Amino acid sequence: MPRTTPMADYLSERDGHLFVDDIDTTKLVEEFGSPLFVMSEQQLRNNARRFHAAFAKHWPDGPVDIMPANKANWNQGVWAVLADEGLGADIYSAGELHCALSLGLDPNRISVNGGGKTDETLRKCIIEGVRITVEELNEPERINNIAKELGKTAKIRLRVKPDFPGIWRRTDFAVESLSVDLGLQIYKAGIPAQYLEELGREVLKMSNVELVGLHFHSGRWRSDTWYWKKLMKGYAELILRLSKAWGGYRPQELDIGGGFAIEADPLHGLKTRMHAIETFFTYPFELLAHVFGKAGRYKFMGFAIEKLMQSKPGSQRAPTIEEYAEAAVTTFRDTLLKGGMDLKGIRLQAEPGRSFFGNAGIHLTSVKRFKKQTKPIKLNWVLTDTTAFFMNTGVIEFSLNDFRIANKLNAEETHVADVVGHSCHGDRILPTVKVPELENGDLIALLDMGAYQEISASNFNALPRPPVVLVNGSQADVIKRGETIEDVYARDIIPPHLRREEKIA
Ligand SMILES: *Cc1c(COP(=O)(O)O)cnc(C)c1O
């Protein structure tokens, strides 16, 4: 059987080849080289509209702003599309702020987040009129002083960190095996709830600061809607408590952050698999296998790897954005209404990252060699021209992405192999997956690579990072050029006394 897991709308099969809109992926690598990151303009536009509709459906009280997390994909060519769709942005750094402002995004829909903001960044935020999402206790006072100096009023929101004692299911985000509520406590972001009442009272008295709303973002600690219902109930209860403590304070906007999974949820696919293997198979099992003698043990472990440890990318499905929006927004809204808050005119904001960009991008990589061994243990490797170092966040988050053999979509999957990168690391991008017989030059497409991957690429082994193209219909434009070897070494400086020409002279 060839692979039949669902793919995004801009991907299709024609004559056994994978197409991005109207372009054959094999033509893309012929023109732009391999490996290659590809983003779909139409999918970005569809996501912009789909996400807005999903959240607006359950928030009849006021406007809804979709403010994607810039960090998940900060290519300016990508953001030019989002600017055209009128979206806002969640921003974390001065560099990201530059991206949003230079593309002309509406400052009212730009939220600048993060701890340790410099005075220079705060000054820029106040001058440009973007929202400052406060992370630290001393930040409002710093902002007030700078705003006073500038003769302006800064618009701020407090990023809150509620307690969530009811979120007892296990998180897949933390390296430790923990309940979500403990995981969220360990996560550094947000102002601890214990300080909020007092901080808010002080902020409301400040002369040059306007508290326009509240913000909460925790991230994708679990992919189920159960988690979202619990989160939003806890957040809404904290908002009600603060509103009361602040003399009936009514926010203009409430931001529920991001953290929705990609539908073909690649995150932690590897960790789940490793966990199962560690529990049931490897070490104790492998020790026991010594009873078969040396040859028997290898044969047995070869069998276990091929048959039992196989990973199945794309088999894990997360809720759709419509399901997330319904669970999150209805719980949030119902809790606020029940607590007596008047929601009329309040803006609802969401900051999706991985779920927004993920399905809008793929990574193409060519097969260099199908390497096989049968002794002492049967193993196969598909050596590619890419590396896990070009998808660093995927490694950190133990991602297991779905894939296609882009020039042989209908080929039978006859082997089990590790699809590996060509750095000197183990570089197991897809461990023990089913693949067809492959040869030099075959093309592999890793799916759902639009969030957090290319923008986290590093130059390990002095490998130049690949280009990014944006496809729309039958048009493909380079939005980030590939690096050259000169680029890789462009920042290196050899001290004068070690320079060869100086030594010779
Ligand atoms: C990272 C981040 C997001 C996006 O998170 P995802 O899990 O990618 O959806 C949203 N808001 C803030 C403040 C973030 O730091």
From TrEMBL:
Q: SUPFAM superfamilies this protein is in? A: Alanine racemase C-terminal domain-like, PLP-binding barrel
Boundaries of every Orn/DAP/Arg decarboxylase 2 N-terminal domain copy: 48-265
Q: Which cofactor does it need?
A: pyridoxal 5'-phosphate
Domain of life of the organism in this record?
Answer: Bacteria
Q: Does the keyword Cytoplasm apply?
A: no
Positions in coiled-coil regions: none
Tell me the keywords, alphabetical order: Pyridoxal phosphate
Q: What is this protein called?
A: Orn/DAP/Arg decarboxylase 2 N-terminal domain-containing protein
